[in-house]
Design a protein that fits this description.
The chain has 13 helices and 5 strands. The protein is an alpha+beta fold. The longest helix is centred in the middle third of the chain and has 138 residues. The two termini are about 80 Å apart.
């Protein structure tokens, strides 16, 4: 036989369509170009602002330098007139101040050679004027005011100050012309940036419109798909809900049929089989009495057979009690629960405390038989689960009527408890059966942790008004849970209970 080879093809990769990829790349490039343009414009604006600030500071420094020289000259004249040296304050500080201003101006004009040359000329004029003022002060101190007047007649002092002012005016004018040239160049660059930005924005708008169309198409398609999916989900949810309701109705119907079948079997076992066993027992007793003297060995065998028959009768009684508790029909729900709890305590070896309200039997008798058997089966199933899985040391069963016409059954143990997944989604047939029995009565069943977050607490709430109709809505689970937590520690009934401890109930033999 030839060999067979199978080729496993890789899963197809979902890629973005080419036109969408090109649009994405184009949009990214537009954004990059726009960012570069904005950065360039910001740098140009920053440079223009810096140049403007430098020009303004140069003009201010030049004006301040002129003021310093004028103050020094005025101070010297005041000293010549009054002879008071207090007027020489500006004159003494003029050298230091002017040299500091010249250093600042050199830093501001370091990139402008022409202005630096003008600044050197201005510095020479200022230094010469300051030297002349200092010489005049020395002459005044040695020769007096007359000599100063003579010197002023022959010298032209105004020409020195005019040269300084003229040099300052020239430098300020050149600075303003440079600033105007920079402003014009910046305006041209700004116009280019505006045109480029407008073009980039137009292209970006076109790309965004195309993107909008693509997104709109995708959104419409996705909305149609989501709508179809929603319709499908609603159809599935409706179908699941319908099937769940059908299964729930079928489950409750099976529970009712099961109880009816158990009742029929128990009656047949009690009536027919019980009568037959009783007749056999009487016949064996009569024959045994007749054979005691003639054949003691055969009489002994008959006595053993009668003992086996008595055990069979007891077995039959237990079967009947499991199928349909006779105490439930003869003495009522209170006695049946007490008796079963007593048997549970005897067989399991753990105490089982019962607390049943005094009006429970009246309520059970006033209603149909489904209430009594459902509550009894819930107690029976709960105690069976506790005996098998809980590993508890103490159990309590309470059945009371609340003021709001609500019948409350509570079974609490201190065992290992039920796991959280089982509490959230109980899949046990026993738990499901108890829930269905509660629903059959129009009530609800809650399962939670017991006292002190230990063990398990099973609570059943059965409404007494309009019981049996599904139109009556039981309390919301959240509201019920809050009520349970408030009453968890309260075990003292408002009225004397029917029974607070297990009591002995006589065995009924056939």
């Amino acid at each position: 036989m030839g060999k067979m080879y199978f080729t496993i093809e890789p899963a197809p990769r979902h890629r973005l369509p080419l036109y969408k990829t090109l649009l994405c790349v184009t949009c990214a490039l537009i954004l990059i170009v726009n960012g570069i343009s904005l950065f360039h414009n910001l740098q140009s604006l920053k440079g223009a602002n810096e140049q403007l600030a430098v020009s303004s500071r140069v003009a201010e420094r030049l004006q301040y330098l002129n003021v310093l020289v004028l103050d020094a000259d005025s101070g010297a004249r005041g000293y010549f007139i009054s002879g008071n040296e207090i007027y020489l304050g500006p004159t003494r500080a003029v050298v230091t101040e002017t040299e500091r201003e010249f250093r600042q101006l050199e830093k501001l004009l370091e990139n402008n050679p022409i202005q630096l040359k003008n600044l050197q000329q201005l510095q020479a004029l200022v230094r010469r004027r300051i030297a002349i003022i200092n010489q005049a002060i020395d002459v005044y101190r040695h020769s007096g005011l007359d000599e100063i007047v003579n010197i002023a007649r022959v010298s032209d002092e105004r020409s020195g100050m005019d040269e300084i002012r003229l040099q300052i005016v020239i430098m300020v004018r050149e600075q303003n012309e440079a600033m105007a040239a920079r402003a014009a160049r910046f305006y041209q660059e700004y116009q280019k940036a505006v045109v480029m930005g407008a073009g980039i924005n137009a292209i970006a708008i076109v790309v965004l419109v195309m993107f909008y169309q693509l997104v709109r198409r995708s959104f419409v398609h996705r909305a149609a798909v989501e709508h179809a999916l929603q319709l499908s989900n609603e159809s599935l949810e409706s179908m699941v809900q319908q099937r769940t309701e059908q299964l729930s109705v079928l489950s409750r119907h099976l529970i009712s049929i099961s109880e009816e079948e158990k009742m029929r079997l128990s009656r047949e076992l009690h009536d027919e089989m019980g009568a037959n066993l009783t007749s056999i027992s009487m016949d064996i007793a009569a024959v045994t009495h007749q054979l005691q003297k003639t054949d003691p060995e055969l009489a002994a065998q008959l006595r053993r057979a009668r003992g086996t028959l008595v055990e069979t009768v007891e077995l039959k009684r237990r079967i009947i009690e499991d199928l349909r508790p006779s105490l439930l029909d003869n003495l009522g729900l209170c006695a049946a629960i007490d008796s079963y709890c007593e048997d549970f305590a005897r067989l399991s070896g753990m105490p089982c405390e019962t607390e049943i309200g005094p009006d429970i039997d009246g309520i059970a008798k006033a209603g149909d038989s489904s209430l009594s058997i459902a509550l009894f089966r819930i107690v029976q199933e709960s105690l069976t689960n506790i005996r098998k899985y809980a590993k508890a040391t103490q159990v309590s069963v309470s059945l009371k009527r609340q003021a709001d016409d609500m019948l409350v059954l509570r079974i609490i143990d201190d065992g290992v408890g039920i796991a959280a997944p089982t509490l959230a989604k109980p899949m046990s047939h026993g738990l499901l059966g108890m829930r269905e029995r509660a629903l059959l009565l129009g009530g609800i069943l809650n399962i939670r942790r017991g006292r002190g977050e230990k063990g398990t607490c099973i609570e059943v709430y059965i409404p007494l008004r309009g019981r049996g109709g599904r139109a009556d809505v039981p309390p919301a689970p959240g509201k019920v849970s809050s009520t349970l937590h408030q009453r968890e520690g309260d075990h003292t009934p408002s009225s004397p209970p029917c029974s607070t401890h297990p009591h002995s109930v006589p065995d009924l033999h056939d």
